[in-house]
UniProtKB/TrEMBL annotation:
One of its GO terms (biological process) is carbohydrate metabolic process. It comes from Pseudaminobacter soli (ex Zhang et al. 2022). Pfam families: LamB_YcsF. It comes from the Bacteria. This is 5-oxoprolinase subunit PxpA.
Length: 268
């Protein structure tokens, strides 16, 4: 595996009212990425912020994605919330609909959906929940991508049901031997250059070093970093510079993944 082009995505719009994340700067981050995962109101985000974040994405030609999470503002969506699969899926539908309508207002399509935090991790191992989520996507957004890990049930079920999939590589998270990320509610400050080196190695060799010291294969089409990681702008800039320096182009998902999905740059 040696990639010549990748998508670069970031979780964005993750504030609420007057409360913001210290290092997050959506305007600067938007200039670095090709896909934006926009908080949909339950773990972060509010209508004013969703509108502004979608507007920024449309202005920069960045793919708009809904980033639904558990109803957990206090825990930033990184705590598992008990509920039936029906309750959780209806929360997801509600959030995706919100971002989709703001996208329509700004003349762009919903490019993708990426569950957030603890919900992303739960879908990765919960077959019934993943199947319900993909069934919703097939019925309402058959051309939109689902962002997930290669090792997840979400990925397997999406492929089985015919939903376009984008597999992610996490620049600012650690991996275990199963190919899953090591879940963390808080992440300390990382060295941007070392993070960028990790990304370039993954692009060139398709491998990452786990917390146990092993190398594992990590197939992916998109690289993710988080706006709540301290120093996120510096991390994103270092990744983008390193990719460019190594001849790896940052491109929209629609140019990388073969599927019928439409680019978010196309008007509805």
């Amino acid at each position: 595996m040696r990639l010549s082009a990748v998508d670069l995505n970031c979780d964005m719009g993750e504030a609420f009212g007057r409360w913001t994340i210290a290092d997050a700067d959506d305007a600067r981050i938007m200039a670095l990425v090709s896909s934006a995962n926009i908080a949909a109101g339950f773990h972060a985000g509010d209508p004013m912020l969703m509108n502004e974040t979608v507007r920024l994405a449309a202005q920069h030609g960045v793919g708009v994605g809904a980033h639904p999470g558990y109803r957990d503002l206090q825990g930033f969506g990184r705590r598992k919330i008990a509920g039936s699969n029906e309750e959780i899926l209806n929360d997801v539908i509600y959030q995706v609909g919100a971002v989709r309508e703001f996208a329509r207002c700004h003349g762009v399509n919903l490019q993708h959906v990426k569950p957030h935090g603890a919900l992303y991790m739960e879908m990765a191992v919960n077959e019934d929940l993943s199947r319900g989520f993909i069934d919703f996507m097939r019925r309402t957004s058959p051309d939109a991508y689902v962002f997930c890990l290669e090792s997840s049930l979400t990925c397997r079920i999406a492929r089985e049901m015919g939903q376009p999939v984008v597999r992610e590589f996490y620049a600012d998270r650690e991996y275990d031997r199963s190919g899953s990320i090591v879940f963390a509610r808080r992440v300390g400050r990382l060295d941007p250059e070392r993070t960028a080196e990790k990304v370039v190695r993954a692009c060139h060799e398709g491998k990452v070093r786990t917390v146990d010291g092993d190398d594992i294969d990590v197939p992916f089409e998109s690289i993710c970093f988080h706006s709540d990681t301290p120093g996120c702008v510096e991390i994103g800039s270092a990744i983008r510079d390193a990719l460019t320096a190594n001849g790896i182009r940052i491109a929209p998902v629609s140019e990388i993944v073969a599927s019928p999905a439409k680019s978010s740059r196309s008007a509805i």
